[in-house]
Amino acid sequence: MQDIRKALYVGSRSDGRLIQRPMSPHLQVYRYRLSMVLSITNRITGVIATAGAALGVFWLGAAAKGPKTFAKARKVTGNPLGQLVLLGWLASVVYHTVGGIRHLIWDSGYRYDKKEVNEDGPVAVGVTAGVSTVLAVGLLAVSICRKRSRAKAGKVS
Amino acid sequence: MNASAPHIEVMRSQLGRARGLGAGHSGVGHWWAERVTAASLLPLSTWFVVQMFRLGGADHAEVVKWGSKPVNATMLIALIITTFYHAQLGLQVIVDDYVHGKAHLPTRLLVKIGTSLLGLLGVIAVIKLFVRGSAAK
């Protein structure tokens, strides 16, 4: 059997003749709007957030396994490339959260007019950038502080 | 779509063909579950971010000590289950939107199995960490 999209493509006119239902225009014919980028970004960041959560599970697994495995995990989270991945995860989770809150607001029946949606878009971008930066800098500062105090106490790693 | 004249391929009404191929009554439950898990994830992930501030740069002993606290283990398991349930619901919508035809069902099952296993792995890791920390006391 064909899939549902095809099954519903053939319709009949009032005189009984079969017709192909009209297709909506494809993406590239529309003028660029911020809202459409933000919409697809919510999906993409959802996928990235899931991938990051999978990495988080492996981090927990490494901690559960023992000090040696956890040391390996810390090598990943400690090096610049690993931290770039973590930053990507963090920003994705923050944006997906902001986008999700907007969706919950829309679902409750607010801020869904064209004007309001267009006003809120740039705010969502700003909030994401701000919160992500604050969290990333804060977390990095905390881990550097802990590293220094450990070095002062003379403990290894 | 093909350029040939529109025609119906099977002796069945269009409604009959569409029935059973779509959400089939399960759509509202899915929609609600997605919203409820999303709202639950707001406090849970805020808690996790706060914990990461406590654990930034921590060594193994510190993480084990943290994981041995019942409240932390409980919140972690709640976070993991809610996260992967929400991920499953969200990824399912993406698969429904972009994967058509024969590949649809296997892809959907793969998403279900994958997210479920990852969630289970996370829960087991938290339990193991908890037991490890409790035994060390």
From TrEMBL, chain A:
GO terms for biological process: tricarboxylic acid cycle. Its cofactor is heme. Keywords: Heme, Iron, Membrane, Metal-binding, Transmembrane, Transmembrane helix. Gene3D superfamilies: Fumarate reductase/succinate dehydrogenase, transmembrane subunit. Pfam families: Sdh_cyt (PF01127). One of its GO terms (molecular function) is metal ion binding. Its main location: membrane. Membrane-anchoring subunit of succinate dehydrogenase (SDH). PANTHER family: SUCCINATE DEHYDROGENASE CYTOCHROME B560 SUBUNIT (PTHR10978), SUCCINATE DEHYDROGENASE CYTOCHROME B560 SUBUNIT, MITOCHONDRIAL (PTHR10978:SF5). This is Succinate dehydrogenase cytochrome b556 subunit. It comes from Acetobacter pomorum. The lineage of its organism: Bacteria, Pseudomonadati, Pseudomonadota, Alphaproteobacteria, Acetobacterales. The gene is sdhC.
TrEMBL record, chain B:
Its cofactor is heme. CDD domains: SQR_TypeC_SdhD_like. It is a multi-pass membrane protein. GO terms for molecular function: heme binding; metal ion binding. Signal peptide: none annotated. It is found in: Membrane. InterPro entries: SQR/QFR_C/D, Succ_DH_anchor, SuccDH_FuR_B_TM-su. The chain crosses the membrane at residues 71-89, 109-131. GO terms for biological process: tricarboxylic acid cycle. NCBIfam families: succ_dehyd_anc. Part of an enzyme complex containing four subunits: a flavoprotein, an iron-sulfur protein, plus two membrane-anchoring proteins, SdhC and SdhD. Membrane-anchoring subunit of succinate dehydrogenase (SDH). This is Succinate dehydrogenase hydrophobic membrane anchor subunit. It comes from Acetobacter pomorum.
